Every structure is written in C-alpha cells, then in structure tokens.
Write a sequence for this structure.
C-alpha cells in the first residue's frame, strides 16, 4: 500500500501537464524579465561598423516585441515536451533505459527543427517591433543611435522587383508611422512583404535553434550524469548556466545573421541571404562583428533564462502540485 501511495505521489508531481505548465510559466516570467537584454542585443547587432549603440531609450521601448515571444512560448512549450517525450521513448535503450550521446544529439536536432518552424514568424514579428521601437525613439530624440547604414544599402534591387505598387505604398506609409503593437506588426508584414515576410531568416533561425538544442541538451545531460546524479538544485542551476553559456559562444555569429536578415533596417534591401550577409559582414566589418550583442545575450540566456528560470520552474511546479513547502 505504501509503495502504491508513493507511486501516486510521484506520478502526480511529475505529471506531464504539470511539467509543461511549470515550464511555460517560468519561460514567460523569465522572458519578461530578460527582454530588455534582448532589445540591447538587437540594438548592438544592428549597429554598423565601429558605431556604438546608445542605449538611452524610455523603458517602454525595451519591452517592444515581448508579446510576440510570449505567444511563441505557449506553442513552443507544448511542442517541446510532447516531442521530447516522443523522441526519448523512441531512442531509449529498452534494457538500460538510457539514451546514447549520439541519439541525444539527434533528439536535440529534431527538437530544434520543430521549434524553429513554429517560432520563425514570431521572431520576425519581434524583430519588426523592436526595430520599429528603436527607430521611433531615435526620431523622437532627434538622433540616430543605431549608427550609419552601409553606403550601398539599396544595392539589392530584388526587393522592389517582387514588391507591387501596393506593398511599396504601404512600406512608405509604415516608414512614416511604424507599427508598435503585435496586431499592427502582423498587418504591416502582411501588407508590405506578404507571407514571405514572416519567414525571413528561416535558415539562420533553424540552424541556431538546432545547434542551441543540441549543445544545451547534450552538454547538460552529460554534466548531470557526471556530476549531479543526486539532482542537487544548486548544481542543476550551475550546469544550466554553463550549458547556456556554451550556446551563446557557438551560436552568436548565426544569431547576428538572423537579426540582420529579419530587420527591416537591412533585410532584403541589403542582404540577399545568409551567405551574402556572412560575406559582407566579414569584408565590411570584420570577424568581431559577428559577436556584437554577445554580453546582453549571455545575461539573458545564461543567467536569467537558465539560472533564474530553473528556480522559477521548480517554484511553479511546487505551486501547481500544491506543495505546502513553497509557502514556508
């Protein structure tokens, strides 16, 4: 009887819907706390050459695009946990119950790909809102703090070749009065760019998410098995921070490419694609340009989203399982 009761308690504590809900709430909370660092990162990545991003903006502009990311989290959390369980069960060794490192790599890659397909439109909406917010703030202050644009910004005629007179009209209208809310951004992208506007930077986003998932899950699992078999909370947080730090180091260059391709400040007006963005960034700004925005991204991903996020996840899990210890 005792073992049956323990089993019921465990199944309740680790029920999939509790885990998913805890993760979603923790992700939304940490995303809201860390979003100003995301805006700082984007602002730095949109500077050209040796220009330094000036961060003096009203606080409201540091939360532009947050609604898009939080909406993405809801679907992303559902996909992640359903797909993670499915792939883990698929590759789990029936004798040992363990998953090999190579199979863990495949699980991470599959998760990254599936999440990317869902996230890409929301990432484009976020980038549009952040860019519009910074541009509006600049105009109100009578300055340009993202820095001078490339001298040949309009070198890519493809953008206008595939834009009909209506989209050109709307593009000019939105340059005068940019969209500042999520519904407005959805409408702006549809009227100016059409469906393709929601999928700018798709390849870069997929690569970044797949690489991030692989690095995070494989490193975290390896470190946990080696140093934290007892599942100590402090060690879990440290391993999570270290895992996210590796993600930032190895994916920062492709994150810059993604940001610039999705930005209507550069986008298709200056870059024809991922390789073109890579080539021009190296020749015009040097290799160091690929690491613009690394520090705010590290603070966001490595410290807040990982360290604080894990603590919040455990807190929300206790609340959702009605664990009285959370109130003590």
């Amino acid at each position: 009887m005792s073992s049956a009761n323990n089993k019921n308690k465990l199944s309740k504590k680790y029920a999939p819907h509790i885990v998913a809900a805890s993760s979603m709430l923790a992700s939304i909370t940490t995303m809201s706390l860390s979003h100003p660092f995301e805006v700082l990162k984007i602002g730095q990545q949109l500077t050209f050459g040796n220009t330094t991003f000036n961060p003096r903006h009203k606080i409201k502009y540091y939360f532009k695009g947050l609604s898009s990311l939080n909406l993405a989290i809801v679907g992303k959390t559902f996909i992640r946990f359903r797909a993670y369980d499915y792939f883990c069960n698929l590759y789990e060794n029936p004798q040992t119950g363990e998953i090999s490192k190579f199979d863990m790599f495949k699980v991470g890659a599959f998760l990254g790909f599936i999440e990317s397909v869902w996230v890409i439109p929301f990432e484009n909406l976020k980038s549009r809102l952040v860019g519009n917010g910074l541009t509006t703030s600049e105009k109100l202050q009578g300055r340009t703090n993202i820095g001078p644009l490339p001298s040949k910004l309009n070198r890519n005629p493809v953008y206008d070749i595939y834009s009909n007179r209506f989209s050109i009209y709307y593009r000019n209208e939105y340059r005068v009065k940019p969209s500042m809310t999520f519904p407005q951004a959805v409408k702006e992208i549809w009227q100016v760019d059409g469906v393709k506007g929601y999928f700018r930077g798709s390849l870069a986003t997929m690569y970044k998410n797949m690489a991030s998932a692989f690095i995070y899950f494989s490193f975290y699992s390896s470190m946990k098995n080696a140093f934290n078999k007892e599942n100590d909370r402090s060690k879990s947080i440290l391993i999570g921070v270290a895992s996210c730090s590796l993600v930032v180091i190895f994916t920062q260059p492709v994150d810059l490419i993604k940001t610039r391709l999705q930005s209507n400040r550069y986008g298709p007006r200056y870059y024809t694609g991922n390789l073109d963005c890579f080539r021009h960034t190296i020749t015009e700004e040097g290799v160091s340009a690929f690491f613009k925005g690394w520090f705010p991204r590290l603070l966001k991903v490595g410290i807040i989203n990982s360290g604080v996020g894990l603590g919040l996840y455990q807190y929300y899990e206790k609340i959702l399982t009605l664990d009285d210890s959370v109130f003590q």
In short: The radius of gyration is 22 Å. The domain at 2-322 is CATH 1.50.40.10 (Mitochondrial carrier fold).
